[in-house]
Amino acid sequence: MDSIGSSGLRQGEEALSCSEEGLPGPSESSELVQECLQQFKVTRAQLQQIQASLLGSMEQALRGQASPAPAVRMLPTYVGSTPHGTEQGDFVVLELGATGASLRVLWVTLTGIEGHRVEPRSQEFVIPQEVMLGAGQQLFDFAAHCLSEFLDAQPVNKQGLQLGFSFSFPCHQTGLDRSTLISWTKGFRCSGVEGQDVVQLLRDAIRRQGAYSIDVVAVVNDTVGTMMGCEPGVRPCEVGLVVDTGTNACYMEEARHVAVLDEDRGRVCISVEWGSFSDDGALGPVLTTFDHTLDHESLNPGAQRFEKMIGGLYLGELVRLVLAHLARCGVLFGGCTSPALLSQGSILLEHVAEMEDPSTGAARVHAILQDLGLSPGASDVELVQHVCAAVCTRAAQLCAAALAAVLSCLQHSREQQTLQVAVATGGRVCERHPRFCSVLQGTVMLLAPECDVSFIPSVDGGGRGVAMVTAVAARLAAHRRLLEQTLAPFRLNHDQLAAVQAQMRKAMAKGLRGEASSLRMLPTFVRATPDGSERGDFLALDLGGTNFRVLLVRVTTGVQITSEIYSIPETVAQGSGQQLFDHIVDCIVDFQQKQGLSGQSLPLGFTFSFPCRQLGLDQGILLNWTKGFKASDCEGQDVVSLLREAITRRQAVELNVVAIVNDTVGTMMSCGYEDPRCEIGLIVGTGTNACYMEELRNMAGVPGDSGRMCINMEWGAFGDDGSLAMLSTRFDASVDQASINPGKQRFEKMISGMYLGEIVRHILLHLTSLGVLFRGQQIQRLQTRDIFKTKFLSEIESDSLALRQVRAILEDLGLPLTSDDALMVLEVCQAVSQRAAQLCGAGVAAVVEKIRENRGLEELAVSVGVDGTLYKLHPHFSSLVAATVRELAPRCVVTFLQSEDGSGKGAALVTAVACRLAQLTRV
Ligand code: G6P
Ligand code: BGC
Ligand code: BGC
């Protein structure tokens, strides 16, 4: 509209045309003036109605409501955090659209040092009208040309330049560097751009230009650049307001409130695009005939109605239309008009701002009207200033109503009674108009009294802000690359998992043949799963998991269990064997007393969840401790004897230890009681392991060729021979070296609950040292072993947890983190637990395939009894295990049964079977 008058004559050259009829008298004149200016008066109630209606539209749009289409678009910008102040580097910024018929190129250096600013270098280029209305390619080629013209003048190297593209039009963004233009505004109407990715169009133009290799890292709306550019004062700016040729605002919204984003974590900057607000109910009453005329004659009639009442591209035009009207009414300029006055766009924003200047305004009015070929009288000058004031006051008030709506929306989403917020303001109307900002601020305080708002004028029109976003985008992109590099070894593909499965099959075969193997494949002397005829009361002990339990198991037609949990202090678990077994017997005696069983000698089944070479059902030589146990004088001993000796030491206690079983076997038996197809036991808890029913013919060292026996694989030790080295990461090595059994239980240390938290902790320390997390600040607490519990993974990865809860868990740990950090911690947890579940799945696939081949079956249907805190509590572990088994053992239909009563019940059932079999042999 820059002086694109429909008459096409140059300003001031035109002859005056004056109305023939007589001029109105003074009272009629003032009435005409009042009636005219009154139209621009907006009442507080009208402003509140606009505020309320805009707020309603904003919340509708956030909820993703499609019909009726909300009056404002609320576009996510993928800017998820306000500046850290640590951003640094040199960036090129290209601004297109913020200031109408000009584009600006800047060279911005960010020092990363709070308060240390390097003045950006910039150059402005006027965009020819025909380019603004021509083909899109022409516009982007023009932009690329300006870029290289600017860079030619800068002492910079031509490679690896990073550019932030400030594109001030409504766009659907699908990433920090992907943005599709919805519609042009503000005098632009290039063809072939709407619906296109403007970053790609710029990249193509830069490539066509071929002068520089420039990486377009981010595309930003000018309001976002303004918000991000404000100096981080007491609090970062979380709202960006621009009133230049157009007008718009952005603010930091909770991501979970933005329906289109399937993200319920962190915050995201939303570009409101309030220029398109047009709720007839709210706006209708304040729209004047001049607004309708302006809209009708604009490039985009019916669109951007709100913007056309506020934006600098339109204020001058509104004033012109009012002046022309008053002149025609004979109230102004003696009823004379001039071709320039009747030419669209002949009064610019600058003119209006100058004419309103309290000190030089009157003189400027004279000069400007003379330039328009008019000869204003003194009263004309005053009236013209009133007209300017009326138009601009209304614009500032309407803008305030819109801003008040944004503040209310922010208050709602933060669930805060009172809101303290900093608003960054930018644009020539804010910068140059003498009263716009004061009217705006005054009206905001009126409409949003519960908000304590500080207005921070942007220092360089958002160029720095765009560089900040580009720096953040570049930093996030760099961090993302480092995060991906760090987590890549945890992302196991099909071939790697199939290799683990094949490795495990080989180790199983060697272990069964009694050859050296990291899988000991220990016979358990459990030959049959329960057949339901078992009966009686049994005592059971369950040692080796998170809790030590003593159970009374009553087997009738069903199974009743009474149990008590006792703790095993670390001092006992790592003290002397005698101490440990005396502690166990103390617990049994305490339980018997509580259950009124004292003096009774019930058959006892002992779930002992450590690798034991069993010589019989009630004889198990402990091969080595695992899972943080290290009681002395036990390894190499028969633990049943150790228990019996402790019983003996504690006179007056009668116990009949019948069976010792591994927790995998107890779990298989316990689930087998409900589902006879359950022939595999799996534990994924503190430790991990599996057992299954193997053919006796395949078991060297166990007499008999027919029938089956349950094999305790002790797969926790898989890979202790180095066969998993290709998968082991530096973090696994750190966890292993810091463990009390370095070099041992390598498979377990990649899978089980005792170690996953530690793997995550080591990865977080590594990412912190790379500066990717916690701004590179090493956090003392994170240096503490076992501070990051595995249960945090289960909590953090649960779908229902919004990021703020993730943050809460981590903040409880004393980790000061941003939402980007929290998102990365989440990804680390996901990668570590996913690998664990997949490795576990590869192990189960090896076992079910072994059973299928054992039985020469095309298809095998089998159930797996599972227990263990990690498997049970982690939100995705079990489904990932099942998916991996389906992928690696497609000819097996595997049902996973979560054991309800733990393996204590299984131990009792093994004891019951043993007693039943013993009964049979006795008769
Ligand atoms: C259940 C079983 C125990 C087993 C444990 C493993 O509690 O009854 O025998 O050792 O699960 O899981 P955890 O997570 O406790 O190590
Ligand atoms: C555009 C917005 C922009 C505003 C201020 C409006 O016309 O739609 O994207 O932020 O002008 O430049
Ligand atoms: C032990 C196994 C046990 C597993 C699960 C491992 O550390 O060696 O015997 O089954 O943990 O508790």
Automatic annotation (TrEMBL):
PANTHER family: HEXOKINASE (PTHR19443), HEXOKINASE-3 (PTHR19443:SF1). Pfam families: Hexokinase_1, Hexokinase_2. Transmembrane segments: none annotated. Belongs to the hexokinase family. It is an enzyme of class 2 (transferase). Residues 1-30 are annotated as: Disordered. GO terms for biological process: glucose metabolic process; glycolytic process; intracellular glucose homeostasis. It comes from Pan paniscus. Residues 33-230, 483-673 form the Hexokinase N-terminal domain. Residues 239-472, 679-913 form the Hexokinase C-terminal domain. It comes from the Eukaryota. SUPFAM superfamilies: Actin-like ATPase domain. Its EC number is 2.7.1.1. Keywords: Allosteric enzyme, ATP-binding, Glycolysis, Kinase, Nucleotide-binding, Repeat, Transferase. The keyword Kinase applies. This is Hexokinase-3.
